[in-house]
Design a protein that fits this description.
Residues 36-324 form the FAD dependent oxidoreductase domain. The chain has 331 residues and is of the alpha/beta class. It has 2 domains: 3-73 and 181-256, FAD/NAD(P)-binding domain; 119-172 and 268-328, 2-Layer Sandwich (D-Amino Acid Oxidase, Chain A, domain 2). Helices cover 28% and strands 24% of the residues. The chain has helices at 3-9, 13-22, 44-55, 92-111, 130-143, 153-159, 179-192, 220-223, 251-256; strands spanning 31-34, 37-40, 60-63, 80-81, 115-116, 120-124, 149-152, 167-171, 175-177, 196-198, 201-209, 212-219, 236-240, 242-245, 269-271, 275-276, 288-290, 301-304, 310-313, 317-319. The strands form 6 sheets. A 4-stranded mixed sheet has the order 1-13-12-11. A 4-stranded parallel sheet has the order 10-3-2-14, sandwiched between helices. The longest helix is centred in the N-terminal third of the chain and has 20 residues, at 92-111. The chain binds flavin-adenine dinucleotide.
């Protein structure tokens, strides 16, 4: 574990003393420390949670398996600020997406983080898709997205001449963001509020004892030398009362490595590719263009980034697990 992290956590001497006394016998002789709050994973979710907790006075330690923040899904996405159209109205996603959109635009404006409200068109390319477009309009309205507008094909093609569609749903409040700058800003603010980031630090599991969660920690580089199926004892035990599991794709498998967690939760993985449009100086579109959503995703869409790069994707392929590379063979 990085020296800075050790320094931060040894300030919780009182908690450490109690925690160390109670850690199970199996881990006797292994170095232990305590922390007020531990956030697992420095993707955009972990960083944002850490910043918020730190701003409320909590002493936060973020443990991240990779060598820096934001190397997982948070840097491999469409960088779209979503309007909140698709989600079922009573869902947390619908609620949080709308509130998050407002907060995100304000956060970016206040700190001059690059972003642009470019708007988005969801398109019906055949008469048969029009009822689906109308259902999306209804769902968006129910969620409180109040600026949506159905356009006839010719109107949509007036604002996007390269497009072909029979009808479109315009979402003016959808936008794009420089996600790396967002994360950099959140990390900086979390650190100003005394959050410590410990990189190359993997949580391999944990156990619960005497009201503490004892996280089992392993140095990420050393993990590469570990034989698969070898019994792995932690190099370090980190004890805390509050853990945020924001480990992204690993969040569920990691939770299952805590004996008290529900082992029945399933995870389903899909993998997709983006395809970059090259050899064009001027992007052919000025809005984000999305098809009617498909099973497992929003459909292969056109995204623009803030440097006018045009990407198509992602496609969706269901896979057995995160290590399944088979679907890349024909790309
Ligand atoms: C193709 C695609 C496109 C998307 N497009 C958009 C979009 O346009 N707009 C939008 O809002 N959202 C989009 N999303 C969703 C968004 O990207 C994710 O919701 C978000 O990035 C998830 O962030 P996270 O912090 O939960 O996960 P991650 O960014 O994956 O971070 C998890 C972190 O945990 C670390 N970690 C994992 N296991 C451990 C461990 N055992 N110990 C320590 N650290 C660990 C990882 O190294 C990683 O850094 C998209 C998602 C995908 C897949």
């Amino acid at each position: 574990m990085a020296a800075t992290a050790r320094k931060a956590i040894t300030s919780f001497e009182g908690i450490a003393a109690r925690a160390v006394r109670t850690v199970g016998c199996a881990y006797r002789g292994i170095a232990r420390e305590a922390a007020d709050v531990v956030v697992i994973g420095a993707g955009v979710v972990g960083i944002a949670v850490a910043r918020e907790l730190a701003s409320k006075g909590r002493e936060v330690l973020v443990v991240e398996a990779a060598s820096t923040f934001g190397t997982g899904t948070s840097s491999r996405n469409s960088e779209v600020i979503h309007a909140g159209i698709y989600y079922p109205s009573t869902s947390l996603k619908a609620n949080l997406c709308l509130r998050g959109k407002e907060l995100l635009y304000k956060y970016c404006s206040d700190r001059e983080i690059a972003h642009k409200k470019v708007g988005k068109l969801i398109v019906a390319t055949s008469e048969g898709e029009i009822p689906k477009l109308e259902r999306l309009l209804k769902c968006g309205n129910n969620n409180g997205v109040d600026d949506l507008r159905i356009m006839d094909g010719f109107q949509a093609m007036q604002i996007e001449p390269e497009l072909q569609c029979v009808k479109a749903l315009l979402s003016p409040s959808s936008g794009i963001i420089d996600s790396h700058s967002l994360m950099l800003s959140l990390v900086g603010e979390a650190e100003s509020d005394r959050t410590t980031f410990s990189y190359n630090t993997t949580v391999i599991g944990g156990h619960v004892e005497d009201d503490f969660l004892h996280l089992h920690i392993y140095d990420s580089d050393s993990l590469h030398n570990v034989t698969i199926n070898a019994e792995l004892l932690p190099q370090f035990v980190l004890s805390t009362r509050l853990v945020i599991n924001s480990a992204g794709l690993s969040a569920i498998p990691l939770a299952k490595r805590f004996p008290v967690m529900n082992k029945e939760i399933s995870c389903y993985y899909a993998r997709g590719c983006y395809f970059t449009l090259t050899k064009t100086k001027v992007p052919p579109f000025s809005h984000l263009i999305y098809p009617i959503p498909e099973d497992g995703g929003l459909g292969v869409h056109v995204t623009l980034d803030l440097n006018d790069l045009v990407k198509f994707g992602p496609d969706v392929e269901w896979i057995d697990g995160v290590d399944d590379l088979s679907c890349f063979s024909d790309r």
